[in-house]
Amino acid sequence: MKFATYADGSLDGRLLIVSRDQSRAVDATAIAPNLLTAVQRWREVEPHLARLAGELEAGVVAEAVAFDPSLALAPLPRAPQWLDGSAFLNHGRLMDHAFNKSPIPDFETTPVMYQGASDDFLGPHADVPFVSEDDGIDLEGEFGVVVDEVAMATPAAAAPDHIRLIVQINDWSLRIIGAREMPRGFGFLQAKPSTSFAPLAVTPDELGPCWCDGRADLFLHVLRNGERIGAASGREMAFSFPELIAHAARTRRLTAGTIIGSGTVSNADRAAGSSCLAEQRVIELLDQGAVRTPFLSFGDRVEMQACFPDGRPGPFGRMDQRVVRAAGVPA
Amino acid sequence: MKFATYADGSLDGRLLIVSRDQSRAVDATAIAPNLLTAVQRWREVEPHLARLAGELEAGVVAEAVAFDPSLALAPLPRAPQWLDGSAFLNHGRLMDHAFNKSPIPDFETTPVMYQGASDDFLGPHADVPFVSEDDGIDLEGEFGVVVDEVAMATPAAAAPDHIRLIVQINDWSLRIIGAREMPRGFGFLQAKPSTSFAPLAVTPDELGPCWCDGRADLFLHVLRNGERIGAASGREMAFSFPELIAHAARTRRLTAGTIIGSGTVSNADRAAGSSCLAEQRVIELLDQGAVRTPFLSFGDRVEMQACFPDGRPGPFGRMDQRVVRAAGVPA
To answer: Would the keyword Membrane turn up in this protein's UniProt record (chains A, B) (predicted)?
Structure first.
């Protein structure tokens, strides 16, 4: 199943089921008012959602409408927690170069993960406000999972049963600030403004065999002002999503609707390009001796879309956003 | 005004107004269903809440009942964000000794702040579940503020107008894990299980002249198994709450209900004692040559209560909790 969220004035928006081909949608609020509630009550509502999705697919839902992704909010406009890993080791190694720092202790054997703000997610076509171009505005293409309630100390082997949805993420980052915050040990805060999400949150079966070993085996196409930044595969995660969930739940329970991110999708093969500009910049430095790519400027356009290995568009829909100066902030 | 939250099966609980002497309460759900909603709609609901509080104080509310703090949830059982500073420099300096590490860059001139989980706060009498005593279970007594909507890049000078409520916090910490997480640069995650709150969230006027210069000039009495750990003053914050709010809002808006913490209350005067065990332990090491105080064990009782400088009980009520082994986790 594919789910989207339209605005209705509430903090959680209203729930839609979207057809497999992403062309049509049906209001599902009679089953659950919003996606957060659906995840909270998953076992109870899933059969009803599946029946409605089947009817939508069969073309027998009179109330079906055209799906307009430009109207979509983030599938979960707010979530109980947003915990973002850094599971692609290639990304971490390049970031060590970018920040000119020594490797993170135990980086290859224990996941790193930061707690992000989860109250103010942006939809796939929303403008993205920033205070200053001097902060090093960057994009970060990722995959993520939405879990239902996960008990404290749940092991990785039991975690797959809690993965209800898969999502596609742009975890906007401010690199200049991040380089200052990281050595302070309290994690990223000012370096992480609101995070954006592709229009559709989907059940794992929508990925078919590309949901494999707790990873999304999809290619994340990333464009800046229409130019390709990269198309890296989600397969190279050193830690699977179940392993990231177990890491997150080691000392706390995760309430239903918690989102766990992969960190920036990154492949060892340079031909894959990058899913963030910081990586692209450090690759230029390493391979060509100088950084050519600037960070983002106000007015820049960023597009992201996952694709299946055969080139078909992925299940999450497309993100198409512009970087803008935050309202009310002096130039 | 003093506010408390009782359980009603919802994630946000139901709103009570509590009398100044903390003995009586009245259901306020006809004005706002819960405290989060009240903070979100503060300008609209505040006059109605104030009128009901006045009637409760005057003894003319027929529906008033005895207030039972043992039934209270955290005033906000969940919040949009929980951002915790470390504004007492004395604490930071002692922690550098405790973790045997070099000082945090710019610690005395730029606040440090971590993003905590905000979906699963504990009430003042709730048992506090942990996975293992080997993680270095510690308490951290703090003050905090609850803000309404704060726009991105709001300066400190404009931040006081956004402080709606003041709260008292026990920011439970796992010190063994924290010492591992801090050098990794992604912040505290496993080191920070659910945070606890005193029963009452209060408007700043409840502190009288002890709400001063954006700080809570109260003494935080902390007991472990009935023995005094400390009674440090909230006055010594190097950064005021408005400065912490401005730090948090530098690159993001804060949605209404966001909680900003002071970090562990700590005074340079050793006679004040400590508001966490890690501090007490490092003071023992520095002053007596050896650590005598162990971290917390299952069954230990932790009490916290703020007091006015003249010794009267503070406005937040008392926290009285036990450390327990998490259900379902093998010994």
So the answer is: no
Minimum-distance CB partner of B193 among A86, A129, A251: A251
Q: Is the ipTM of this complex over 0.90?
A: yes
Residue-level length of chain A:
331
Beta bridge partners of A27: A16
**Chain A residues with CB-CB distance to B106 below 8 A:** 184
CA A279, CA A42: separation in Å to the nearest integer?
A: 38
CA-nearest of B241, B45, B250, B78 to B150 is: B250
Nearest Cβ partner of A115 from B153, B187, B193?
A: B187
Q: Chunked in runs of 10, what are the mean pLDDT values of chain B (331 residues)?
A: 98 98 98 98 98 98 97 98 96 86 90 98 98 98 98 97 98 97 96 98 98 98 98 98 98 98 97 97 94 98 98 98 90 65
Contacts of B183 in chain A (CB under 8 A): 105, 185
Four-point Cα dihedral B175, B179, B181, B187, nearest 10: 80
Contact B112 A153 (CB under 8 A): no
Contact (Cβ atoms closer than 8 angstroms) between residue B6 and residue B13: yes
Neighbours of B62 (CB within 10 A): 6
- Give CA–CA dist A75/A1, Å, rounded: 13
Q: Rounded distance, CA A51 to CA B73, Å?
A: 38
Q: Where are the domains of chain A?
A: 2-67, 82-325
Does A191 reach chain B within 8 Å, measured CB to CB? yes
Give yes or no for A37 touching B (CB within 8 A): no
Query: What's the angle, vertex CA A19, arms to CA A14 and CA A24, rounded to 5?
Result: 75
Size of interface A-B (CB pairs under 8 A): 147
In this structure, the strands spanning A259-261 and A82-85 are: parallel
